Amino acid sequence: DSQTYANLETVNRAFVNFTLMGYFGVIEDALSALLPIDSVAKFDLDNFLRGNPFERAQVYEILNRIGAMSIDEIRAEEDMLL
């Protein structure tokens, strides 16, 4: 009778780790073999595994306050360039 809380990022990360991760390397290697010698194929999971907008805003606010990220860097990270 207990409930388990998991946010979307946690669920997505578990899905990738336990179901897809084994396939990614094989697919990346196969695709990389078709590319020029100095190129490599890699999956980009950043958007899939990112947190919710509220959590990201909190992190960005802290990073901006301590000088680790500028407003322009935050906008670029969120694809909000004007």
Total helices: the number is 4
Shape descriptor reads flat
- Strand percentage, roughly? under 5%
Measured on Cα atoms, how large is the radius of gyration?
18 Å
The count of strands amounts to: 0
Instruction: Give the oligomeric state of the chains in this entry, treating copies of one chain as homo and distinct chains as hetero.
Output: single chain
Biggest pleated-sheet summary: none
pLDDT < 50 stretches: none
- Alpha-beta classification: mainly alpha
Mean pLDDT metric: 84
End-to-end distance: 50 Å
What proportion of the residues is helical, as a percent range?
55-70%
- The SSE string, one letter per element, is HHHH
Task: Give an account of the 3D structure.
It is a single chain. The protein has about 80 residues and is mainly α. It has 4 helices and no strands. The longest helix has 27 residues. The chain is flat and about 45 Å long. The mean pLDDT is about 85.
Please give the structural blueprint:
Blueprint: H1 8-34, H2 46-49, H3 53-65, H4 71-77
How would you sum up this structure in a few lines?
Helices cover 62% and strands 0% of the residues. By secondary structure, the chain is mostly helical.
Task: Give short descriptive properties of this protein.
82 residues; mainly alpha
